[in-house]
Amino acid sequence: MTHVTGDHYFTAEPNTPAQAREVQFTVAGSDYTLTSASGVFSASRLDPGTAVLLRKADLPVTTTAGDLLDLGCGFGAITCVLGNVAPTATIWAVDVNERARQLTVGNATRLGLSERVRVTAPEEVPDDLRFAQIWSNPPIRIGKDELHRMLLHWLPRLTPDGVAWLVVARHLGGDSLQSWLVGQGWQVARHASQKGFRVLRVTP
Ligand SMILES: C[S@@+](CC[C@H](N)C(=O)[O-])C[C@H]1O[C@@H](n2cnc3c(N)ncnc32)[C@H](O)[C@@H]1O
Question: What does the pLDDT look like over 117-138, one tens digit per residue?
Answer without folding.
Answer: 999 999 999 999 999 999 999 9
